[in-house]
Structure formats: structure tokens, C-alpha cells
């Protein structure tokens, strides 16, 4: 027995069918709407099993299960949206001050014996200056690219 049973009202079915026909929304919303219509256990719905839905729409079984759960617990609007992340996956290494220090460093004179700064040298210098505990040269690269700075 399923814990989260989808039983759509006729109004909810109408909303989902209109959303699918309109086609002017994100693809994931249309896909979620189609999945919910197939999962409907009400008198108008086909009542497909999660595995059938996952196979038909090329989704993972847990996607269908979590879609069902969101509909029952949070309502139709929440089920049609992507799940929001509780927090960012990682904290940023460089805040605004750190970025400013990096840019100033990149624009400064390179170390003795060097013609120009390399990404690895910049990363090492940021650690030496205690701007950050550790940082990769790729993070330095992305930060400089984002700020449209050049090393030249």
C-alpha cells in the first residue's frame, strides 16, 4: 500500500491538462504534469504504478515517488516545481573581499623571476596571505573569468 496516494480533483486534472496543452512552460513542468496524471488513483485517472511511470517518462523511480509525496504534502503547485535546495551545495571560497584581493594580486607585479602570474601562483599566494585556507587554481580561474579580469 502506497503512503502517498495521488487522487486528483477534476479541477486539478483540468489544470494539468491545460498546462500540457499550452506548452509555454518549462519542459520539466509538463513532464511532472504528465506523470501526475498517470499516477492519479481517482475515478478518472489510470492509476499507473510508479515503475510504469518511471519507465514511460525516462525518470528514476525516486523521482516519481518524491513527486507523489510533494503533491500530497505540499499541493499541486509545489509538485509542478523543482524541489528547492535547502542550502547551496558548497560555501564559496572567495567572498567579495577575497575576490578583490585576488584581482589586486593578479594586477600586481609578478613574483621575482616570473614574467607573469599563473593561476597556481595566484592560488598559492592567496593561501600564503591567509585570504583562504586552501583554494584550487580552477577556482581562481573561474573567479577571474567571472570578473572579466586578465592576467596580462
Spatial shape:
rod-shaped
* Main sheet specs: none
What is the average of the pLDDT values? 90
Unreliable runs: none
Radius of gyration: 25 Å
Q: How many domains is the backbone divided into?
A: 2
Q: How do the SSEs run, as a string of H and E?
A: HHHHHHHH
Q: Residue share in helices?
A: 55-70%
Number of strands: 0
Strand fraction: under 5%
Label the structural class: mainly alpha
Count every helix, treating DSSP H or I runs of 4 or more residues as helices. 8
Distance between the ends: 66 Å
Plain-language structure description:
- With 152 residues, this protein is mainly α.
- The chain has two domains: 10-80; 96-146.
- The protein is 56% helix and 0% strand.
- The protein has eight helices and no strands.
- It has helices spanning 10-22, 27-39, 50-57, 61-74, 76-80, 96-107, 119-128, 137-146.
- It is rod-shaped, with a radius of gyration of 25 Å.
Concise structural overview:
With 152 residues, the chain is mainly α. The chain has helices at residues 10-22, 27-39, 50-57, 61-74, 76-80, 96-107, 119-128, 137-146.
